[in-house]
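Sequence only, no structure available. Ideas?
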Amino acid sequence: MRFTAGDIADQLGGKVLGDRTMPLTGFQAADRARAGDLTFAENRTFFERAEQSAASAIIVDKNFTSERKVLIRVPSARLAFAKVVPLFYPEPGPPTGIHSSAIISEKAEVHPEACIGAHVIIADGAKIGARTVLHGNNYVDEDCEIGEDCAIFHNVTLYPRTKMGNRVRVHAGTIIGSDGFGYVQEGGRHLKVPQIGNVEIEDDAEIGANVTIDRGALGPTHIGKGTKVDNLVQIAHNVSTGENCLVVAQAGIAGSTKLG
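Reply:
I predicted one. Tokens follow.
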């Protein structure tokens, strides 16, 4: 994609210091930038590196000046970075269609605009929303519901009655809705407590790779709207997160914990 410094400033509500017509064709870290690239700097150290780089323009949020580079001044350089990268590298639109190897129950509901990849299994009563993509080797068990514009990456398993809202992303290898770890003692032996709840994930949540989220013993394990869960996290039964929580890699959250 090709923009000018002025185009980028207008997108961000920023101000150009220098040539507004400077052509920009990509976005890179300063140490990898080439002529035509845009980069960003959050502090003096990063700004000095960016100014010495081959980048054509720098996004800044401080009162920096430069005789060598075009600057685009914004309230937050990091927020601008998050907004600008998709302009240069837009995510492709969702594919459509159902792969010939997919197995879909006649009692499931798959929206015509959904994409079902290779070796996906969708069980009775499951519902898949518009523009949702199941990338491949996914198992969607009975009565699961996946909303619109979701991305379910390879080798994700959804146990029965898992519910997802819209724009949820679940990365490869994650298992949602497996039994909670619940036992009671009887005669010196461990008696399993049935886990008859489910998992509910609200809109705009993102679940990392190789995450496990156990279903509730009674009622749901709940992931709130906009919550982001990093890779290799274990969330136990009946946990409930609020909105926009962050759970970082390799964390474990014990059963019935409330976050946010």
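The mean pLDDT is 97.
Hope that gets you unstuck.
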